[in-house]
Write a structure and sequence with these properties.
The protein is an alpha/beta fold. The chain is about 35% helix and about 20% strand. It is globular.
């Protein structure tokens, strides 16, 4: 059985490709997920994808990671900057987690430069567009394989 990684995408990421392409790029979330699936096969991982615009749904999905999920790749979107609930859920389940962002959150508005989730993750990859996800999955694979 292959190690399983849950890919979580937060609010507004379902609008990728349409939403501010000058910041987030032209690729859709389906495009990114397709690239992740190809890389996962190469790395020997099984992926599950989850996207929600609702904080509680994301928390509930993280809680279910205690069985059957070996790692989490998360782009919390705007929740990055203020969701202590998501942060605490990641910490509580004890599953290795990598945070990713399409844009460089440290080079944008001041409020975007702080991640409350990063401290409970193995690391954070930001600023490389869709490649951030691929880099994050490679890093996570090192922990779960």
């Amino acid at each position: 059985m292959l190690p399983k990684v849950l890919v979580i995408n937060g609010p507004n990421l379902n609008l990728l490709g349409k939403r501010e392409p000058d910041i987030y790029g032209p690729q859709t979330l389906d495009d990114i997920n397709s690239k992740l699936a190809v890389l996962a096969k190469e790395l020997g991982l099984d992926l599950e994808f989850f996207q929600s615009n609702h904080e509680g749904e994301i928390v509930d999905r993280i809680h279910r990671c205690v069985s059957g999920i070996n790692g989490i790749l998360i782009n919390p979107g705007a929740f990055t900057h203020y969701s202590y609930a998501i942060r605490d859920a990641v910490a509580a389940v004890g599953v290795p987690c990598v945070e990713v962002h399409l844009s460089n959150i440290h080079a944008r508005e001041e409020f975007r430069s702080k991640s409350v989730i990063a401290a409970v993750c193995l690391g954070q990859v930001s600023g490389f567009g869709a490649i951030s996800y691929l880099l994050g999955l490679r890093a996570l694979a090192e922990e779960v394989i």
